[in-house]
Amino acid sequence: MKCLRIAVLPGDGIGPEIIKEAVKVCDSISKKFGHEIKWNYALVGAAAIDATGNPYPEQTHKICVNADAILFGALGDPKYDYDPTAKVRPEQGLLEMRKKLGLYANIRPTFVFPSLLEKSPIKRDRIIGTDLVFVRELTGGIYFGEKGTKENGKVAYDTCLYSEKEIIRLAKVGFDLARKRNKRLCCVDKANVLESSRLWRKTIQRMEYSYKDIEVSYEFADAVAMRLIQSPNMYDVLVTANLFGDILTDEASVISGSMGLMPSASIGSETSLYEPIHGSYPQAAGKNIANPIATILSAAMMFEQSFKLSEESQMIRKAVDLCINESILSEDLALSKNAYSTSEIGSWISEKILSL
Ligand code: IPM
Ligand code: MN
User: Fold this and answer.
1) CATH superfamily of this structure's domain 121-256
2) Which end of the chain is more exposed for a tag (fewer CB within 10 A), N or C?
3) What is the reported pLDDT for 81?
4) Matching CATH topology for 1-104+259-356 and 121-256?
5) What tens digit of pLDDT does each residue of 241-279 get?
6) Active-site residue (options: 2, 190, 218, 318)
7) Distances (CA, A) of 281 to 81, 284, 332
């Protein structure tokens, strides 16, 4: 038996609804395996701005630091999107959290469910067998480099800066993951143009000697954007900088047929955070129609990576597979007259776990 302290940050939009279902599923797992989970709720994003004026309050940071893992919903509110002059924005909360918790490696898998191949906008024969993982650098690069405006706001700049140390730390996560999978690693960059990308390439080339069993390739980000759609099943693990990873993982997420299916983990040196890759989907907030599976699969990643409880993790994944095979699907994947609600899907998976 383990006592697990989990910080829960539901956030904005559909965040609270999908988190509720993932919590249900984790509680089923703890009941089944005799663990104890202590849930600690905290505010983040627009919800935190409304309550405290700060998108990542000190109290939330404290709860995260003292947790064994963090389960995160989504963040963002349209009232900020059309106001470039807003002084505080929900997204700042996420960036501050990543930086302060040192969540340097963002692991975003893309895979397909055999029974959902027809839901993908890409032809079936191109995506069959797709099973790839992006490892996106998350606390550096152009997101965090020097930025500013000059000439009375008529000129603006953002700097992309990477150190060898940051690249090695990130690439190590990619190499180690490739070793556990199909032993192929692709470094995605723009080394034909960017100095920082040339440092990525040089650094990873040097690391190849310590990973002789891994087949390493180097591809430009624009070409990868194309190949991800043409033949996604050629990739295994891809490592890349913050901004390329942001863009390419959104692109990759459509392969599965719905953004509502794909989980993610943000690995830190102390605590790690688990969240669905989709956003706060404000149009669906409060309607009980969002797909909770991405969040439930994020919880599965949490059991595996943070708690080293593989059996528990596999059981969540198995229950999700059964749920999908039995067409217990939400509106993003089913005709709305046949669709199941967020809470029905969460309950189905939780009950399935107890009966497995
Ligand atoms: C993501 C999001 C964030 C990012 C935003 C909300 C700051 O798009 O997690 O991919 O750009 O990293
Ligand atoms: Mn993004």
Assistant:
1) Isopropylmalate Dehydrogenase (3.40.718.10)
2) N
3) 81
4) yes
5) 999 999 999 999 999 999 999 999 999 999 999 999 999
6) 190
7) 13, 6, 12
Taking the domains of the chain in order of start, what are their residue ranges?
Answer: 1-104+259-356, 121-256
The answer to whether 342 and 292 have CB atoms below 8 angstroms apart is yes
Q: Rounded to whole angstroms, how far apart are CA atoms 185 and 217? A: 6
Q: Which of 94, 107, 242, 273 to mutate to test the pocket of ligand 1 (most atoms within 8 A of CB)?
A: 94
Distance, CA of 184 to CA of 226 (rounded, Å): 19
Residues of the chain whose pLDDT is less than 70?
A: none
- CA 327 – CA 321 distance, rounded (Å): 10
Of the bound ligands, which one is closest to the alpha carbon of residue 75? Answer: 1
- Closest Cα to atom 2 of ligand 1: 246
The CA-based dihedral angle spanning residues 36, 42, 47, 53, taken in that order and rounded to the nearest 10 degrees: 180
Closest protein CA for atom 10 of ligand 1: 246
- Nearest atom, ligand 1, residue 250 CA: 10
CB 21, CB 346: distance < 8 Å: yes
1-104+259-356: in CATH 3.90.78.10: no
Phi, psi of 330 (to 5 degrees): -90, 180
Ligand 1, residues 77, 139, 246: which to mutate, most atoms within 8 A of Cβ?
246
pLDDT (0 to 100) of residue 300:
98
* Binding pocket residue ranges, ligand 1, CB within 6 Å: 91, 94-95, 246
143 is catalytic: yes
